[in-house]
């Protein structure tokens, strides 16, 4: 279980509680998108193809199935939520009203609009969610996210303005649905306190409170009578689709709560927008009620790219969320230098710490000249352990919101057996281990008092497995990995994010500027991508290709019976003599051999697909 994977009190789902937080975030979003996609298609068939007369009655069916499934699950002790008491209505308000409004308006708009137009107009949920999260939850989003949201809305306006099948009633219903969906998502996020109702309690009591009023509405409007007199009740295929809609309605409610529980309400809205890409194009082909026009088609397609371009978890770290000061160790080169520029671009003032004064002065001058952020430099050699009082004094009076523990040293770039590596182990320990502990100790206490902060600890992919021929480096980075995850477990509830990054090959001066390729990233590429994943969990490789590489290594372990197959494969790859012989090779050939050594395990298991 990750640091953030705390059980949900009485309503905990043991299976999900054991998932790493980033996996839970991804799976919950995928689950929500899939359920929403399937439900729209089934409801469209019921309300348009079969012409079922009452969206309200369909909503009642979905509520009834939700109540039945959750109640039976509670009786069988599969889940748990609190028994009813007189405080529950107060705890839930206004969720039940938003819940039924979302249900009815969504079903009504689905029946009155073509699928492409329905999915385009549903995108107005995203800016409404962003606005409500800002007002109700106090969240703030970066400029690139706001720009992406407005790009979505621009496309929606173009598409709506040229809709040849304009239906005023359908438009009213879909905009009401947008409002109810946004409000429901934000308030659901607010109400899902595991110490109160939990996610199952929210689902169950929402449905209980609203099924009877909704049923009364259906009677008063004549919907119930029309539904009972509907002529397709003897059609087996219709009945199957009606029951499927009811079950998918439950799954959608559950997946929405789950996605909002693990992510933000805005993330849930964006996942819904991404899902709409498939729905809209399917609607063009099989819906039968889409009237083509060039402007409308252009508007549809303008709507779709922004959700793909925005990070799925919508990083919200900004100077307004954490304090505006940032400390970066090892800022004179490579990854540390890249973090210095990128965080300055995002509006942070930066404190750069490194041992080479000339490099620090040059970087500070460039940041101040090109970006305009305030820069403070501190010259310190992290290979020594007597520097921290000096650093503490230099940081006095500064409000630090972000700490990037980046400084590190690689004792041997070329693969080397332990007895052939440089024996300056104390410097390695000071630089790779002590620096992380001491800098965290200096900064964390102030973050704790402010109840906010972000610490990024740069470890390595070599920390995830025993890594022969880089044994001391691998072990030192394994300390950073374990320390970071334990620390996040201790301080997450204090509002502090502590994330460890485990990249593989990054082209920096420390790695002798390895040639870049699909796997080996530049420092700038790595930093820009890694900052997209700050809120995704307590660990990340920092870039997608390195995440895939980790999964491949894990699959190698899963396919072998011996405890450490990667260790054996690496040992087979380079003998002691072969490793020593690399020392005399030109740099380009050395780079080639290093890539071979560090990818040998993958080549062994995937010889035709990887690195050929």
TrEMBL record:
Q: Name one GO biological process term.
A: steroid biosynthetic process
Q: Which GO terms describe its molecular function?
A: estradiol 17-beta-dehydrogenase [NAD(P)+] activity; testosterone dehydrogenase (NADP+) activity
Specify the enzyme's EC class, one word: oxidoreductase
In this protein, which residues make up the domain named Sugar phosphate transporter? 27-302
PROSITE patterns for the chain: ADH_SHORT
Q: Which UniProt keywords apply?
A: Lipid biosynthesis, Lipid metabolism, Membrane, NADP, Oxidoreductase, Steroid biosynthesis, Transmembrane, Transmembrane helix
UniProt-annotated location(s)? Endoplasmic reticulum
EC number annotated for this UniProt entry: 1.1.1.62
Report the family membership: Belongs to the short-chain dehydrogenases/reductases (SDR) family. 17-beta-HSD 3 subfamily.
Under which name does UniProt file this protein? 17beta-estradiol 17-dehydrogenase
Principal localisation? endoplasmic reticulum
Tell me where on the tree of life, at the top rank, the source sits: Eukaryota
Q: Name one cellular component (GO) term.
A: endoplasmic reticulum
Q: Where exactly are the transmembrane stretches of this chain? A: 26-46, 52-72, 145-166, 202-224, 236-258
Q: Which Pfam families match?
A: adh_short (PF00106), TPT (PF03151)
Q: Where is the signal peptide?
A: none
InterPro entries assigned = NAD(P)-bd_dom_sf, Sc_DH/Rdtase_CS, SDR_fam, Sugar_P_trans_dom, VLCFA-Steroid_DH
């Amino acid at each position: 279980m990750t640091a953030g994977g705390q059980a949900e009190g009485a309503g905990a789902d043991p299976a999900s509680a054991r998932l790493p937080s980033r996996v839970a975030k991804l799976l919950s979003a995928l689950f929500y998108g899939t359920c929403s996609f399937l439900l729209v298609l089934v409801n469209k068939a019921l309300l348009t193809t079969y012409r079922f007369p009452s969206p309200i009655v369909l909503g009642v069916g979905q509520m009834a199935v939700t109540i039945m499934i959750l109640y039976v699950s509670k009786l069988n002790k599969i889940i748990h939520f609190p028994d009813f008491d007189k405080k529950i209505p107060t705890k839930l308000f206004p969720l039940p009203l938003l819940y039924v409004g979302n249900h009815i308006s969504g079903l009504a708009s689905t029946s009155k609009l073509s699928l492409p137009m329905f999915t385009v107009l549903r995108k107005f949920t995203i800016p409404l969610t962003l606005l409500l999260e800002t007002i109700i939850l106090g969240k703030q989003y970066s400029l690139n996210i706001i720009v992406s949201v407005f790009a979505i809305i621009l496309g929606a306006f173009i598409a709506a303005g040229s809709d040849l099948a304009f239906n005023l009633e359908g438009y009213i219903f879909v905009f009401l649905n947008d409002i109810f969906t946004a409000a429901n998502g934000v308030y659901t996020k607010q109400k899902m306190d595991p110490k109160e109702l939990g996610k199952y309690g929210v689902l169950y009591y929402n449905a209980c409170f609203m099924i009877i009023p909704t049923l009364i509405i259906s009677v008063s409007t004549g919907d119930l009578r029309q539904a009972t007199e509907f002529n397709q009740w003897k059609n087996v295929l219709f009945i199957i689709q009606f029951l499927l809609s009811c079950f998918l309605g439950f799954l959608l409610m559950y997946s929405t709560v789950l996605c909002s529980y693990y992510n933000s309400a805005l993330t849930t809205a964006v996942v819904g927008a991404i899902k709409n890409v498939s729905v809209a194009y399917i609607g063009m082909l099989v819906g039968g009620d889409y009237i083509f026009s060039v402007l409308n088609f252009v508007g549809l397609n303008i709507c779709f790219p922004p959700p793909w371009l925005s990070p799925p978890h919508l990083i919200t770290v900004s100077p307004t969320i954490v304090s505006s000061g940032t400390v970066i160790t090892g800022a004179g080169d490579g990854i540390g230098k890249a973090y210095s520029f990128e965080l300055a671009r995002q509006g942070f003032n930066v404190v750069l710490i490194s041992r080479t004064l000339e490099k620090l002065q040059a970087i500070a001058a460039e940041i101040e000249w090109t970006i305009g952020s305030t820069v403070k430099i501190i010259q310190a050699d992290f290979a020594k352990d007597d520097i921290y009082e000096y650093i503490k004094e230099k940081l006095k009076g500064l409000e630090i919101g972000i700490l990037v523990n980046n400084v590190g040293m690689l004792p041997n770039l070329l693969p080397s057996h332990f007895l052939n590596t440089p024996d300056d182990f104390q410097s390695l320990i000071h630089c790779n281990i002590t620096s992380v502990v001491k800098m965290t100790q200096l900064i964390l206490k102030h973050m704790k008092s402010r109840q906010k902060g972000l610490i990024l600890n740069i470890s390595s992919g070599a920390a995830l497995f025993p890594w022969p021929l880089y044994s001391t480096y691998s072990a030192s980075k394994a300390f950073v990995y374990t320390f970071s995850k334990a620390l996040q477990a201790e301080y997450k509830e204090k509002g502090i994010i502590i994330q460890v990054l485990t990249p593989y090959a990054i082209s920096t001066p420390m790695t002798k500027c390895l040639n870049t390729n699909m796997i080996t990233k530049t420092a700038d590429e790595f930093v820009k991508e890694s900052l997209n994943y700050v809120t995704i969990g307590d660990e990340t490789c920092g870039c997608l290709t390195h995440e895939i590489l980790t999964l491949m290594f894990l699959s190698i372990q899963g396919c072998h019976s011996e405890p450490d197959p990667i260790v054996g494969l690496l040992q087979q790859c380079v003998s002691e003599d072969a490793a020593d012989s690399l020392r005399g090779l030109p740099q380009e050939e050395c780079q080639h051999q290093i890539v071979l050594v560090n990818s040998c395990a993958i080549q062994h298991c995937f010889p035709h697909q990887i690195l050929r």
